[in-house]
Amino acid sequence: MRRAELAGYRALADAAQIQAIVVGALMMRELHTRYGRDNLGFVWLFAEPFLFCMGVIVIWSVIHGRYEHGVPILAFVMTGYMPLTLWRHITMRSTHCFRANASLLYHRQVRMLDLLLARVLLEFYGTLIAYAVIGFIFWSVDLYELPRDWGLFYLGWAYMGLFGCGFGLILGSLTEMYEWLEKLVGPFMYFMLPICGVFFMVDWLPPRLQQAALYMPTVNAFELIRAGQLGPSVRTHYWLEYETFVCAAMIAVGLMLCRNVHRHLIVE
Amino acid sequence: MISVQHLRKVYPGRNGGHVALADVSLDVPRGFKLGLLGHNGAGKSTLIRLIGKVELPTSGVVEHGMSVSWPLGFAGSFQGSLSGIDNMKFIARIYRTDYPRLRRFVEDFSELGRFLYEPVKTYSTGMRARLAFALSIAVEFDCYLIDEIVMVGDSRFHARCNEHLFDRRADRALVLASHDTSFIGRVCDGALLLSGGYARYYDDVQQAILDYQAL
User: Fold this and answer.
1) B94 closest CB neighbour out of A103, A107, A265
2) pLDDT at residue A170 above 80?
């Protein structure tokens, strides 16, 4: 390897290390500012999705009983509402994310992407911990079985995280550029509910709708998580090539918007 | 050496926006102390933020050939709801400095005592200045960007700033924006007079001050 090339790799590794340190420090900081050091503190990070999901489980169990289309309600709700919570929290946290943290840009190694990444990662870990806690509680009383295929399970979560990352980057930048957009976020998320895949499995749909459903990126993520959780007992449909492409494209567009916003952002 | 080439910064606004800087170029060699002069709104703070790479220019290039501090000023760089200690930890993490050493220095320099455990938003301007200053000196930079902040604080703070920044760190470069012309005249090796988005460089700081006062 030529010397210049080697130096290039070293600079890249160094930059990656700085970025990791910055994102880590931002996460610590976010925990402190959001939850403070009083009362339960950062326990709320997963206590909140935990409470939400438990409530939904109770309501659904009363309405639907223990099975829906032969799928255990408990696992269905967990694999639906928990990833949905992740998406909704990322949406909430990325709206005006840059404005709220603009004073941090005074330190030039802190970049817009880091601000968003710190928030997305916190939500990601919080939701996964909440899932594990709920799973453990119901597993210990024999109401919940561990995921059949951990690979598919985590792949689904990873796609949900990547999708959330792209979505957050785009939303965070757009709300910075157009103030009024913030008002539309609530209705938009509400209208997404029936089509995002939280309430249905693709296999339950009429055949001509099945292919169409896979165009929705979250549907693929939900299907993957459910394929991992429920195993071969249910038929799942997902389109990995499309999902990968859409997530990558959203992140790329988000990064470009981010750059554009930084050019116009006034740091107090 | 910091090299700044044809910097232009336009802020969005009505009637096509506000041109804060039209075309500014400058160099800051190692150890050089550059004063920025200009009336309110002439673009001193904007220029400092651009040199610090806090904001991105509309066009132009900023290159750092040495380590450059974040812009020390009244605003920014702290999260108000966090305590001084938490802010200290954050700075130590992202600048990869030794936390215990940084903390000892900041406690000693800032003399904030138990206030370090209180949220920064409860601090007075002078207390903030002491904390910001102590942190940046503890991290150690080749060049410090200072926006007015040396002016606040009491005489004791001034004396400590002088000791740490101008005596012990006399070899460091400075970019200093201030309305205090006698201070600029005393410490700077050269001055940049900003007016109407353009800059004029003076080797003779006294001449720059005279022209500034005649504006």
Assistant:
1) A107
2) yes
